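S.,

Sequence below, as promised.
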Amino acid sequence: MTSGDAYKGPNLGDQQPINDIETYLWSVGAADDYINQKWSQVYEGVSRANAALRALDKVLTEKPGEIDTTTAKGIRGEAIFLRAHYHFEAYRMWGSNTEGGTGGIPYYRQNDLDFRKTNVGVNAIAEILVDLDSAIALLPLTQRNGDKGRASHWAARAYKGRVQVYGAAATPALWNDALATLTAVRASLAYSLETSFDHVWTARPQFRNGPETILAFQASTRDGAPDGWNSNWGERLNFPHSGSHFGCCGFHQPSFNLVNFYTVDAFGLPVAMASNAWNSPVPDTNFAGGILRPVDPRLDWTVGRDRVPYKDWTIHKRSWIRDAGYSGPYSTKKNVQEQADIGTSENNVGWQTTQQNNVNMHIFRYADMLLLLAEAEVEVGSLANALAIVNQIRARAGKVAQGCGSADTALTRLYPVCSDTVATPPPFAPMAAPMGSAAAYDSLTTPWAVYRIGQYPSFASQAEARRAVRIERRLELAMEGQRFFDLRRWGGADSVIANYITTERNRIPYLALATAFTLPKYGRYPIPTVQIDLSRVGTEDRLQQNPGW
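The prediction came back faster than expected:
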C-alpha cells in the first residue's frame, strides 16, 4: 500500500492502523504496534533458525552418528538460508547502519544469546551474503528428501543475487557480482518460467511448486489442522466481500494508479514508457469490462474489475465491494483459488473457509529473478541482454488472456459468447509482424477487453532500458509486495509517491490526509519503540533509531 499499488480497503475504521501506515503516519502508536509485529515475526524466524543450529550441534556432539553427514549438512544449510532470508526481510524494512545515518538492523547468529545486540556498525548486506555463501556450500542441488518447500543450492544462489542487487544501491560494485551470480543460476536451468502467466498464482494442483518457484510459503488445507491455520493465513482477508463466493473481507484493493498503469499503445508497449498519459484516462474511476482501451493481459490476472470474468468464477460485480466510494471498485486476484479446484484448495474447518486456501505465497520467483538480472545487465551496459530478458517476460505474458468464467446469468446477458463454461482461457492470435519489429504485437479482443502486448525492438539508451525494466517489474509483480522496496532501492521514491498521492487523493478522499513522503526519513520504516526500549542496557539504547524518526 505504501508503494501506490493498493489501498488498504475495504471501509473506514476496519484495521485503522493500516490506514495510518498507508498515509505514512508510521510513528502513530497503533501503526507502531503493527510495524512491531513485523519486527517480532522476522526475528522469531531468525531465533528459530538459530535454535535449530544449536540443536543440531548438540545432537552431533552428544549422539555421534544419530544424523548422517549428508543430512546434517542439509539441515545446517537450510537453517542458515532461512536465517539469511529473515534478516533480509528485516533489512528491506529497516535498512542497514552502513548505508548512511543511524539505525538499521542487528544481526543474530546461533551463539548470540543476548537479544539486545546493537545495530551500530552492522553491514546487513555483507552479513546476509556471508550466510548465503555458507548455505550455498552446504545445500544439495535439489531439495532435501524431495520436499518442495526446502531451500536448495540454487535457491540460495538465486537469493544471493537478489541480495547483491539490493546492496548495489549503496555499493555499485555489487552489480558485477549480481550479474555473475544470477547468470550462473539461469545457466543451471534449475528454474524456468511457467508456460503462461495464469499458472503462477493458482490453486490448480498441477502447477503447485512449478518451475518458477524459488521460495514460497507452502499453504496447506484439509490437512487435519482443526483451525485451518496452515492455509494462506496472512492473505485470508484479501478477497472480495459479501455477495461473492468468498464472503469477506475486501482488504488489499488494487489502486486506480496500478490499474491505469497497464494501458498500452498501438504496438502493445506500456504507455508509461513514453508519457504520463497512462494515469489520466477517461473514465478512470471504474475501468470496467466493455471499456475497450487496450491493456496488457496481465491486468486481468492481477486485478478483479467489474464486468470482467474473475478467474473461472462469474464476472466480478460491484456488489462484491464493501465500500467502493471509500476504497475503489477493484479486488485483489492473484491469491484467490479457482472454482474448479475448491474441493481440494479450500479449507473445510475454521472461520470463513471460503477464503482459506492452499495457494502458495511466492516469496521469490524466477520472473522476479530474471528482471533483477535484467537490471544488472542494464547497469553494466549490456543493453541487448536486458532487452532479451524483458522480451522473454513479455512473450510469456502474451500467451493467454483471462477467459470466460462459469455460466452466469449476468455474464450470458452481457456477453453471449461466454454463455458456456470455458475452462481454458483464450490464447492470443499469431504475431502480427516478425518478432522484434516495431510493429510486433499480439492482440486479442474479448467482449470485456482488448488485450495487446508487444516486444521492444531495441533500447536506444541505458536510461530507456532502465525505465523499461522498472516498468516491467511493476507489471509482472504487482500486488506481490515488491514495489515499495524497488522504489526504495532505485531512489526517487519521494517523487513517485508524491505524484501518486497528488493524483489519488482526488479519487480516494482519505488520501488527502497523507503525510508528505520525504527522504531520507521514509526510506526506512521506524524501528518499533518497544524494541528500542527492550535493547536498553543501563541508560544505553543499543538499538539506534532510523534517521528522521
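The first strand starts at residue 6 and ends at 7.

Coffee later?
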